[in-house]
Design a protein that fits this description.
Oligomer: single chain
Shape: elongated
Largest sheet: 3 strands, antiparallel
Distance between the termini: 53 Å
Strand content: 5-15%
Radius of gyration: 21 Å
Strand order of the largest sheet: 1-3-2
């Protein structure tokens, strides 16, 4: 059960990192940090063709980083917003990696300090 859960978590992280590997998609995320926006507003802000932006938005949606909601007064318009839980997952992963590296660096530092005190 645990390995299946880890595999699913790793797959979700891989999708998120793959989505964020593109500069345009990172720019979309930055714009959506301000507020939810329509695709046309995002395309205009980024000077990207609507069809091109649509592909980026689909990738962000598939990764779970972005969601779209229909606008009440116009069903053709979708309002894109960030999915906070997806970014929380990325943050948790980054924190765990940072903690791991801190432990490793502390152990290396202690080892190096023991070695230098023996040479004196």
């Amino acid at each position: 059960m645990r390995s299946t859960q880890n595999e699913a978590s790793n797959a979700a992280l891989a999708r998120a990192f793959a989505a964020l590997a593109d500069p345009t998609r990172c720019a979309v995320v930055e714009l959506l940090r301000e507020r939810p926006q329509r695709a046309s507003d995002l395309a205009a802000a980024l000077a990207v063709a609507p069809a091109g932006l649509s592909r980026h938005l689909r990738q962000l949606e598939r990764s779970g980083l972005v969601a779209a909601d229909a606008v009440v007064h116009d069903a053709r318009v979708r309002l894109y917003r960030l999915e906070p839980h997806a970014f929380a997952t990325l943050g948790d992963w980054a924190s765990a990696m940072q903690a791991q590296w801190s432990e490793q660096l502390q152990a290396f530092k202690a080892h190096a300090e023991r070695g230098s005190s023996r040479r004196r």
